[in-house]
Amino acid sequence: MSLLKTVEAKFFQSEIPYKPMGKYVHFLTIRITESYPLFQTDSELNKARVRAGVKDKTTISRLSMFKRKQSTPERLVGRELLRNYGLMTAEECEYNVAFAMDNPDCIIYGFAIGDSGSEKSKVVVDTAFSITSFDESHESFTLNAPYENGTMAAKGEKKSDGKVDGEIGTVTARINQQDHIRPQVFFPSIVTLKDPTEASFLYVFNNILRTRHYGAQTTRTGRVRNELIGVVFADGEITSNLRWTQAIYDQMKSNNTINPPDPLDEDDVITAAKNAIEALMADEFIVHRDFIGDAFVSLINEVKTLTGSEKGIQAILQKADAEAKDYAKKHISKKKTAAKAGKE
Question: Among 88, 95, 138, 306, which residue is least crowded by beta carbons within 10 Å?
Fold first, then answer.
């Protein structure tokens, strides 16, 4: 039974296909920082030197949000839900340790377990870039690690004779400087799902909507909100994150809505993002059906209604789980049997 009324069944596969069948859905997402997240490698924020816009040929440095920094938190949210509703246990499927190979997370997002088997991810995420430049999008903080008494000084250590060496002791050297990304920095990102079934579409959609923390130290900072502005069903891939970001920059610059050091206004960004993607889609050489702007409102409202009730989210998860297990039974078990036969 169909869960959605706003999207025609022709855009979905009836079951998860083993080979690529040329159906794509692209989630048009604006990732908005709401605290001070860290997207870094080797203790430095990730950044890239690129052209400012499609038309504006000035070269600037932009913050980068690598693909795993985006996909991993989203799939972990999905795994949490599967455990919560009894469709997966921590013992049978542990992320990056022992994959069960037959649940929605494993089949949709993929896995690799050496000789035991692998499944290519059907979710494609590429590096996202900040609209504003690196210099306008980050700031440096001095971090410290105080002792339990709330100060940076430890009490003196006891000697062998029981006497304390000093009343206050030495000041800790546990002080460090770290660059953080500022709040209200915007990362346009296109998340692509290949050959979606209705259930896998809703599963990935829900994961994007629910994920709230990205980057390092996710228990303490890293708050990010995903604002979806539309979805595009197509028979091929669409523009890159970088080109969309550059097109947004051109739009905002021409409208005089980039005024450093002030942060970008969210309404201005959303408007520019919609206009930019519509212009870019008009130049594509693929068959596509766009749900952007007013056309997207009824779809996202229906999805939020479904995912906002226990009955609705259970229906999505159960249908996605049934499809994953059916796929695993048909294809994963065959690969495992073939691998075992090869060893013998």
Answer: 95
